[in-house]
User: Fold this.
Amino acid sequence: MDIKSHIKSDIPLYEVYEKVKSLVPLEEWFISAEYIEEINRLKREKGAVILAHNYQTPDIFHGVADIVGDSLALAQKAKESDADIIVLCGVHFMAETAKIVNPSKKVLIPDLEAGCSLASSITAQDVRKLREKYPGVPIVAYVNTTAEVKAEVDICCTSANAVKVVESLGSDRVIFLPDKYLGKWVARQTGVEIILWDGTCEVHEKFTAEELKCMKSQFPDLYTLAHPECAPEVLELADFVGSTSGMIRHLSQVNKRRVALITECSMGDNVMAYHPDKEFIRTCNMCPHMKKITLQKIVLSLKKEQFEVKIDENTASKAREAIERMLKIGRS
Assistant:
């Protein structure tokens, strides 16, 4: 079957398929291509832009996303966008962040139930109690938190700039929430005493040291890149530790043929397209929340302009201050 003749669109869908053909069967692609064509038409019609996190599936990442990246990149680009509508293909806290930095724009998320185990692990009341317990100690919130939590802290961070953010505070003691593993990693990088919250990412906490040892035993030349949301014993075995964007940059710099990304499985799928010279040993711990976003739901969200993210302005203005401080610092 000739895919070029089957798809009639001004969008280069054949080129998109070339990127994902090792991951998406041709029969499945014909279905996806119809949604991709419709989404790209709706974007032009409505003046919309799609922001997609690195953990989105390849059909979304390569097929309809205008801007892709990690949490920090999406926050930065959301602020710079001049689109009338922003569709955030990620999880709810990311859509909230896009809305906080774009208060006058319509921000949509294709599925309101796309949550996050880290964001659900802590509340604004928890933060207020921490302030009472540790008066005067600055509080850093990972962006994987709700708008209400962000409104209670001094500054936000992402895994890409957590070290830089903590160091910018000039304090020998910092409260870091909610990811305890990321907090422990930051403590080792900075020497700052970190007061931790007992939160974890349900995806990254599944990776084990035994798993990495087994992979390295099977493939002695394997080069591993791990996200700092993984447990310390996993990070100790990894050849490189960094955010999703950090991993992508590092892959372009390191001369290694066989690699494994110790992070959410779609990340590896998406990055493979940019590195045809490398062999990816695939690991697959999947984020169930990211996978709630589908092409079909994006079509409905754009058509009906449904699932708009709305935040109380008092909460948004306080959270905006913490996010703006983070954006001024940039990434490490």
Notes: Residues 3-114+290-304 form a domain with the Rossmann fold fold (CATH 3.40.50.10800).
